Amino acid sequence: MSRARKNPEDNWMPPRVRRGKSAYEFRAIDGRTIRLCNADLSKAQVWAAYEQFINDSKATNTFNALCQEFINSGDFHELATETRKDYLKYSVKITAVFGKMKPESIKPEHVRKYMDKRGVKSRVQANREKAFMSRVFRWAYERGKVKMNPCQGVKQFKEKARTRYITDYEYASLYEVSPDVVKVGMELAYLCCARQGDILELKKSQLTEQGILIQQSKTAVTQIKAWTDRLRAAVEMANKMPVNDGMVSIYLIHQKSGARYTRDAFNAQWMKAKKTAAEKYPDLDFQFTFHDLKAKGISDLEGSLTDKQAISGHKNVSQTAKYDRKIVVVPVVGGQ
């Protein structure tokens, strides 16, 4: 029997259910708040919604339940923050289609059909969502929860490799109109050949006498990016970023509250800066991504691909080759 409520008028409510601002909510044991139904429904309707929720929760032998197990697992929480966010986003699309199916009922042909339909709108997203689904099944297979991974053998769509090289003029024009947070981000991405996630996670404690200590979240390679005058200038600009009175921040790039910039918050500033640049320089094309700054950095490095690999932190030369985008100038006939 559930305990008495603080407000006796609420004693009719189902266990762990309370009235929120606009809905009746179920308070899960792990602290999550789950919306049950609208606040204007009758007592009988609230109980019906509660019973339906409980019955659905008991249906543990579904792909949706398998996804939740994976999301609650240690393996999931060891992933990089942005990877977890992406996986949660992909899970919404995948469970909307496969959620109520039993994992053993999902076959490769079902995955292929999903890919084909999803690919009509976005082939890249279809690939990412299938990769998430495969990760869930691989995790479950290793723990004896499923007998096969239906995603194995299902071909992903071929993605066109990016070839966009940001010219020095385009870089300088965008830098000129950008706020300090974007300027610092641009310089760190370009000079250190670093990913956005690694830049936003940078802590002041990673600043050493020799340079900036960066462990790449994707390859786990740890490097110290040696100081140059330009890199020091970028860090000095970051150190001057304002914080609210009485607040401090452990992050190099931070908001006024002292908190780190999330990917969405930083990207909002990035997109705003690109829009401003496009208005001021209508003759230039600013249709490039923040990740293209890393490619510009690798392209502008001197030396062979092997030299560039050592600096970029890639595990093999083929990875580095994908980022080396500067077009080679060759002589014409008679100009050799």
Q: How many domains, in number, for the residues?
A: 3
| Quaternary organisation | single chain
Task: Using the 3D structure, state the CATH architecture of the largest domain.
Answer: Orthogonal Bundle
What's the β-strand tally? Answer: 5
The helix content is 40-55%
Could you please say which CATH topology of the largest domain applies here?
hpI Integrase, Chain A
Strand content: 5-15%
Question: Any descriptors?
Answer:
mainly alpha, two-stranded antiparallel ribbon, three-stranded antiparallel sheet, 336 residues, 3 domains, hpI Integrase, Chain A
How would you characterize this protein structure?
The structure is a single chain. By secondary structure, the chain is mostly helical. It is built from 14 helices and five strands. It is globular and about 85 Å long. α4 (81-98) packs across α6, α5 runs antiparallel to α6 and α13 (305-312) crosses α14 (317-323). The protein has three domains: 8-58, no CATH class; 64-142; 168-316, Intergrase catalytic core (hpI Integrase, Chain A), CATH 1.10.443.10. Helix content is 48%, strand content 7%.
